[in-house]
């Protein structure tokens, strides 16, 4: 796999601030919002399934508090930039459109979320083999043990492998956000029928 560039916090913050200042045509913003909502529905279903299995999943939206929002966007943005910088293979013709997309870090591939196109990810992985370079997809540090991880950034779903510190950091941030967003007596979003405090709230 080509060398990847993992940006520092200051560089990521400058990009986030720059993007926040950009003005796009209303029609483009509408398309991005629609694609983001579609992705939210897809990932909520995937997260609920993961939570039902006992895995960790973020069921909710990014916090309104700007410093915390930046803190949660940084690792997602770093993963995205590193993967794109390594040279991404587009697996379907829909990736030129504003729609929900999946960016896989291993190997770097981009595909839309239609089931027929998603199937091309596995086909490509089988054809090329696992190209992981013994580095975490979140921070770039060498690691011998990795943990599968999937997150979203707007209409983009990002799939990669994280080292233990990155996995722990991102999981803890997601658990804290879920715990704050969910009332203790609310039904657990995993669909178990139990109250949040008696189900995944015990972990969070």
From TrEMBL:
Q: Which organism is it from?
A: Streptomyces enissocaesilis
Q: What is this protein called?
A: Uncharacterized protein
Gene3D superfamilies for the chain: 3.10.450.50
Q: Which InterPro entries match?
A: SEC_C_motif
């Amino acid at each position: 796999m080509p060398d990847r560039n993992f940006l520092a916090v200051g560089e990521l913050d400058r990009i986030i601030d720059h993007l926040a200042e950009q003005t796009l045509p209303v029609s483009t913003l509408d398309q991005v919002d629609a694609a983001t909502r579609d992705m939210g529905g897809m990932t909520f279903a995937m997260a609920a399934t993961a939570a039902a299995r006992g895995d960790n999943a973020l069921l909710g939206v990014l916090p309104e508090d700007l410093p915390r929002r930046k803190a949660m966007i940084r690792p997602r943005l770093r993963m995205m930039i590193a993967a794109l910088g390594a040279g991404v293979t587009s697996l379907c013709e829909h990736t030129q459109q504003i729609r929900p997309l999946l960016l896989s870090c291993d190997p770097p591939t981009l595909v839309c979320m239609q089931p027929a196109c998603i199937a091309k990810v596995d086909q490509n992985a089988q054809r090329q083999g696992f190209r992981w370079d013994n580095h975490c997809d979140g921070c770039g540090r060498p690691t011998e043990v990795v943990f599968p991880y999937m997150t979203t950034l707007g209409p983009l779903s990002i799939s990669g492998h994280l080292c233990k510190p990155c996995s722990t950091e991102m999981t803890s941030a997601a658990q804290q956000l879920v715990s704050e967003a969910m009332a203790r007596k609310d039904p657990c979003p995993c669909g178990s029928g139990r109250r949040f405090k008696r189900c995944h709230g015990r972990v969070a």
